[in-house]
Amino acid sequence: MPQESPSGTRPALGADAPPPTTGVATPDLSAAAAAAFAELFGAVVRNIEQAIQGKRAAVELVVLCLVAEGHLLIEDRPGVGKTTLAKALAASLETSFGRIQFTPDLLPSDVVGVTVFDRASSSFTFRPGPVFNSVVLADEINRGSPKTQSALLEAMAESQVTVDGTTYPLPRPHLVVATQNPVEHEGTYPLPDSQLDRFLMRISMGYPARADELAILDAHGRTDALATLGAVLSGPRLEAMITAARSVHVAAAIKEYLVDLATVSRHHPSVWIGLSPRATLAMLRACRARAAAASRNYVIPDDVKALAEPVMAHRLLLTPEARMQGYSAARVVSDVLAQVPVPVPAGR
Description:
Layout: H1 31-48, H2 56-67, E1 72-75, H3 82-91, E2 97-101, H4 108-112, E3 113-118, E4 123-128, E5 135-139, H5 146-149, H6 153-158, E6 160-163, E7 166-169, E8 175-180, H7 193-196, E9 201-203, H8 210-220, H9 235-246, H10 252-266, E10 271-273, H11 277-293, H12 301-312, E11 317-318, H13 320-324, H14 329-339
Parallel strand pairs: 1-8, 1-9, 2-5, 5-8
Antiparallel strand pairs: 3-4, 6-7, 10-11
């Protein structure tokens, strides 16, 4: 495994280092830096679990999205903790937080901001909307009109928004956590495939186990668990974690494995539109973050398998025949994983 060059520099994970310089190639992550990454990752997960009981997998995925510079869609029934999870993440970070409650009458300017005339200066001034926060909760996103939903497209794909011909950069990191209820259809507008593809992952939380639900009654019965949460990760340390995740080593065989998975998905008989190159890049980023969270400075096939469904399933568009037969995107992902040979270390 290539080790970090002595001349390579990176913000220290254990200290409030300045934000990294973008656009500069970084050496492979060292084993010590991977261990430091895993320690900070675990601290954020444990802090969130003070408000979210029994959902370790979902909590880990939302933190992975953050350090992999992606966005998260939580799709599940009402009342299972979707909004609480997003707010607990924001409370664990020393970053700005904004919430957008999507409704049919919400306007794009309510999301990205608006240009207003300032009489005092006799000039136009831009007033940024809630999307300019580092962590943005887009609650019940499918209740917003398609026009308002599309206001997030540029923000989620390019980390910028354009208003009245002027482009404004968004803060880094920038995470959109969107929620939607899949069982209600009145007053909702399904997200188009182009917008689903902007989300790094789509997850569900599900109902808690009996013991976990009893723990929820103890934690939330008298007080608001979110009110007692404190930040455990500063902005500079978060920036350092993001930089570290980019530096996790990915062998050529793993990259070929990702490309083969995408290729097989495009030729699956139940798939109309398969995985795009953006999906392959998303898998690469997510796998790097998962490897670092496991205190590894290299990606293994198990990282790909573990993240395949949350990263790939929502990007697949099934044929009408497959949908009529009850075929699911998750089943297609399982088929694709079964068809593509898993890379093995050389010499085996």
